[in-house]
Amino acid sequence: MRNRLLIAFLIVIITALGTVLALSNYSASTQVRGYLRMSMGGNSMMFAQELISYYREHGSWSGVEALFTETSSENTMMGEGSSPMGGQHQGQGAGQGNGQSQGAGQSQGAGQPQGQGAGNPVTVIRRNGYLADKTGRVVYASDPARTGTVLTKAERGAATPLKQDGELIGYLYVPNALSVLPENFESQLTQKVQQAILTAALVSTIAALLLAIVLTNRFVRPVRTLTDAAEKIASGDFSQRVNISSYSEAERLGKTLNTMAASLQSAETARQALTADIAHELRNPLAVQRAQLEALEDGVFPLDLNALKPIREQNALLIRLVDDLRVLALSDAGKLSLNKRPTDLRALCQDTLQGFEAALSAKDLQVVTRCEGHLPLLNVDPDRIQQILQNLLMNAQRYTTRGTAIELTLRQEGAFARLDVRDHGPGIDPEDLPHIFDRFYRSDPSRERESGGTGLGLAIARNLAEAHGGTLNAYNHPQGGAVFSLRLPL
């Protein structure tokens, strides 16, 4: 996500700077071109002085078109006293006074370059503009159609007045040009450029802000979704799930949140089930005790040892259930105390089997113990390991078919000692196998309740194994029966 934020900020910065640069360049160029285009007429001031000098010399505007038209030849050398301007003036004088002086002058002036030398390249340059007399009548125009017309009021206002000794003698009008550059031209141009930059900055700021809003919404939307789901989970709604696929970090966080919600939902379901199971397990012995005590009070049964025996058995069952719950609570909290010391696992198995001789004989069951290879001593709590063995043997003798055997196999497996307890019963139903170590889970509730089981034995056995850093698993043997495999670190 950090890289994405850096890229987003970089995009915003580049967009802002690019907008400022583009708009500033465009606006500044436009203003400069406009001023240059208008200031081109500034050269007309020098030309106006030439026109005034011409009028002073000739006393009229006759032949003035020579000043608007210049000719040049690359290879022709002019004779002494002759010039393009002079030759044109001579031609202009021949046509003066007949109302067509302008045309005659142009014709003769244009023919002069041809007499300078055949084959020489000639360039004709015509100035752009209109020349009018003091009344505003156009006496010469670069556009022949305007000759003889009168300057409009606007054209006369934009024209350069021509004066001799303070007396108005005519007008010089150059279209699209200033008669003179303003005195504060530099400050005006600077002001225009500054305004262009400020406008570009404002536009770029707005563009960057819009882009930032779009990018921010893209990043904030999944965070807002995760926040809403987390708040609902915190309020107890563990069914909340999110589906985020905008970017990898948010998607990973969404999957983690879903996993957490699923775990909390599972834990809550397990807690509710555990509470119900504990209440159920406590209710049965208490109900039996209450019924037995009421029968004694009502005189249904005589008050003797035989009548007290069921009460004593149910009381023992309650004590065992409370002890089992205490062991589970301590192991879950990681506070189960272990008194570890070097222990011979094979000898511990033999001692545990001695306590089951009467129960095994009653069902005509035998126990076959095999130790494959030398098994070193284990650093374990022998009392807790014996508790695991007792739970496994009780489960095995409960389901093993009469007249068969229970097999105990010990061997070293890498850095672990492994003990397999196999019965010769019907095995574990595949549907029950994933839940065999769940608390209060019974594959056959009626049989376990009849035998006094609480449904916590296998759960306690696995917790004790894990407290020693080992494992306890169950599977069905290929040849029949269930196998419980205990692995303890050497």
Tag the structure with descriptive keywords.
five-stranded mixed sheet, Beta-Lactamase, Heat Shock Protein 90, Helix Hairpins, 490 residues, alpha+beta
List the uncertain runs.
72-119, 446-452
| Rounded Rg | 57 Å
Could you name the CATH class of the largest domain? Alpha Beta
Structural class: alpha+beta
H-E order: HHHEHHEEEHEEHHHEHHEEHEEHHEE
Helix content: 40-55%
| Count of the domains | 3
Strand order of the largest sheet: 8-10-11-13-12
* CATH topology label of the largest domain: Beta-Lactamase
Anisotropy-based shape: rod-shaped
Number of strands: 13
Average pLDDT, rounded to a whole number, is 76
The CATH architecture assignment of the largest domain turns out to be: 2-Layer Sandwich
Q: Please state roughly what percent of the residues sit in beta strands, choosing from under 5%, 5-15%, 15-25%, 25-35%, 35-45% or over 45%.
A: 5-15%
Total helical segments? 14
